[in-house]
Prior knowledge:
- By secondary structure, this protein is α+β, with helices and mostly antiparallel strands.
- It is 25% helix and 24% strand.
- The protein contains nine helices and eleven strands.
- Strands 1, 2, 3, 4, 5, 6, 7 and 8 form an eight-stranded mixed beta sheet that branches. A three-stranded antiparallel beta sheet has the order 9-10-11.
- The longest helix has 14 residues, at 244-257.
- The two termini are 19 Å apart.
- Mean pLDDT is 82; it is low at 2-44.
- Its cofactor is Mg(2+); Mn(2+).
- Residues 93-231 form the Nudix hydrolase domain.
- This is NUDIX domain-containing protein.
- Keywords: Hydrolase, Magnesium, Manganese, Metal-binding.
- Residues 1-48 are annotated as: Disordered.
Amino acid sequence: MSDFLDGLSGSGRHAADGGVPVADGAVPTADAEAVAPRSEDPERADDPDLRDQLARLAESKGSPLWLRRAKARGDAVVRDAAVLMLFGRGGAPRTDAGRAALPHLEEKGVADVDIVLLQRASTLRLHPGQVAFPGGGRDPEDDSMVAAALREAEEEAGIVPASVDVLGQLEPLYIPVSRFQVTPVVGYWAVPGVVSVMDEAESYSVYRVAIADLVAPANRGSFSRPDLAITTPAFDVGVLKVWGFTAGILDFALDELGWALDWDRKAAIDIDY
Length: 273
């Protein structure tokens, strides 16, 4: 798992991003109201509007153009990997900017939608504190990319595979720095459960991040890595700072779903790496 995440997503140091470790299986939050679980609400078990929106995202088979440009060399050894983009309801924004974005999302019926992201342990030798979707390399026993994504999500965040309604896959993308061909799998969580760190040696925390915090223009910008000669979309949602592969997929998904607000691509997000 560690090799796969290297170079895929942005890092946000714990002291800077305000992240807190998961304790006793709880979802880490900035305050007690940051996540309002809806799993006991029977009306949330059948949500065709949200599911249909996510299904259209999966059917797009799309991906960010700048990520599609990377191609493996003919002699490169490429490994398959998959990540799970798991959307559910019950999220509340942690930031003032996110709360300001709620009226925009209410018009679209998605004001309480969130997505699962995790942050790697700060003690890892490579890229400590990196932010990513749950996911990892495909193992021999995985009969599909979907199986790989669901297995990793369970191992990393305690997500029960049977609770996920898999809607499809986006275009596989090659990541040169790690030589993985990564397939994003789109999932709908009709009855969201608790997410938690399953292995503290690998993950520092797991979050259900409100879409409102991700679409808020004040929380968005760009991040540059001069050493890699790249500039990518970036998000600063208080508890996490995201750039690179994960931010690129999030940026694409928010646009494709029609949830995004206009944001300043010239605004810089400061991230340690």
